[in-house]
Predict the structure.
Amino acid sequence: MYKKNKKKHKFIVIFISCIAIFVLLFISFMLDRDYTVVESVGKDIAMFVEKIIMYPFTALNTSKNEDLSKSYTIQKNVNTSLEEEIQELKKALELEKTLTEYDTVTATVLSRNKSYWFNTLTIDKGKKDGISKNMIVVTKDGFVGKINRVNRNSSEVKLITSDDVNYKVAISINTDSGDTNAILNGYDRKNKLLMIGGVDKTFSIKEGDKVLTSGLGGKEPRGIYIGRVKKIKSDKYNLSKTVYIEAGQDFNKIHYLTVLKEKAS
């Protein structure tokens, strides 16, 4: 009886320890800092295991008992989705040809955390591919974000839709009277619009004006497309404006990305 209770107690201790380790790893992955070597290896292993676990679900059709007409509809939708992804990949590869000032790396999105859907995503390229922190990430539809953390085989991208108040992007609004420089500093999730707050009321900005990266501060290249002005709202004292931008990129549908690496001199 004593041995039985001892084994049971040992099992409980091991189980609680495993849960504690898992929770600590999860919290460490959520913190906005660089990974330690152990965490980096753990992240890569987790990505590998996730691929193995998800493969049977993506490779096999689990709906074996459905009638043929429904199966045909499902297969048609799958084919359409695959075709869209193929076209997206082709455009990503074409983008590489136009960005002649940079070495480019095409990456595939591995995962996104549903709780932080508009904050970050994980791609399948890392240190072994020459990826490093703060590299710019784009798609065929424009600016997406920056590399935030890097592991050997994967990297985390912080999106421009992130709710991090310290994450800002220098932009330029192309108006009829010339370029207006400002800082992209927010995202309206309800209306799915990027925001520029504190814009001088005297600036003649109108709906439809194109928004690009300005290149000021040297953090982003100049001229990468972001979107177009959707609406303009004055503050209650009519001292400044908030400009809302409709992004060129649909942040709900990102499968392939291009990472920009400065060419070695």
Q: What stands out?
A: The chain is about 30% helix and 30% strand.
